[in-house]
Amino acid sequence: MTILVRLLILCLLLAGLAYAVVFALATLVEPDTRETTITIPSSKFNK
What we know:
Layout: H1 2-28
């Protein structure tokens, strides 16, 4: 039973750490906005 409790605590700690990393990336990192231009050949429109 003790091993099961340790495993559950370890899984909860890893899940909490992953959640903290995702939250930090979502709030602290600002994305760069830039304009992109994609040239599409006219042969793609004829189909």
